[in-house]
Amino acid sequence: MRIIRFEDESGTIQLGEPVGEKTARVIAGDLFGAFETTEEVRDVRRLLAPLVPPNIIAIGLNYRRHAEEGGSQVPKHPVVFAKLTSSLANPGDPIFLPIDAPDEVDYEAELAVVIGKLARHISTEEALDYVLGYTCANDVSARDCQQRRDVQWMRAKSFDTFCPLGPSLIVDPELDPNSLPIRSKLNGKTMQESNTEDMCFSVPTLISYLSQHFTLLPGTIILTGTPEGVGFAQHPPVYLREGDAITVEIDGIGTLTNPVRREEMFER
């Protein structure tokens, strides 16, 4: 099942199941409880991120070849960090190059896992039972802040608009999250091309590991890492610039595209 979150023609925010390019059947109920698709069809005026998460937990260096391209060893344990929820961006909305750090903003195509029910101290074997669905994400990163200016990653990963998400949520218990082709394209040129099977730690392993340390609330998003081909590892480095368009594609999940703009003081 494919679920979108959108503004309808009246400006009301709805959940729906797409039936056309600009229409959807309204979903009634609770996404984290009982819900059903109705026969009511609404126009999609604006597509939104599939949900507003209570937490965004991310994993670094989780693809073997990505660790290698950055000169890092494959980690023995998941590298965990967080992104502020205010970094969330909708499909098609601009990624803003921040005023304080506009020059080394990088793209990272990622599979996002959405937790469907409260999870704490769960096993790897039962981990996928706690998944609501999957979507595309871009873990946008200011590399100068990440690698030189700060001693941790939060600011580099959490500027406003640095977590585009969508365009839809795929709910499919039969889907194997560790067998999905994933890529990014910058202005139509393929930059990253891999498969989630290259993850150092599988999706079930990540969910179980995180649940040992944190309560995973319904709606929590887990960004599962990015494959090789990011901008800072190119020769010469390739960073996002005003006027660019960056796309994340995951086969069976969707295509997420965002334009890039330079942030202006008091713009938003």
Provide keyphrases for this structure:
4 helices, Fumarylacetoacetate hydrolase, domain 2, 268 residues, mainly beta, five-stranded mixed sheet, single chain, 11% helix, globular
Strand and helix layout:
Blueprint: E1 2-7, E2 13-18, E3 23-29, E4 35-43, E5 46-48, E6 56-60, H1 64-69, E7 79-83, E8 88-89, E9 95-97, E10 105-106, E11 109-115, E12 131-138, E13 141-142, H2 143-149, H3 154-158, E14 163-170, E15 181-186, E16 189-195, H4 203-213, E17 221-223, E18 245-250, E19 254-262
Parallel strand pairs: 6-17, 8-14, 9-19
Antiparallel strand pairs: 1-2, 1-5, 1-14, 2-3, 3-4, 6-7, 10-13, 11-12, 11-17, 12-14, 15-16, 15-18, 18-19
What would you note in describing this structure?
This protein has helices at 64-69, 143-149, 154-158, 203-213, and strands at residues 2-7, 13-18, 23-29, 35-43, 46-48, 56-60, 79-83, 88-89, 95-97, 105-106, 109-115, 131-138, 141-142, 163-170, 181-186, 189-195, 221-223, 245-250, 254-262. The protein is mainly beta. A hairpin with a 3-residue loop joins β18 (245-250) and β19. The longest helix has 11 residues, at 203-213. The model has no long low-confidence stretch (mean pLDDT 96).
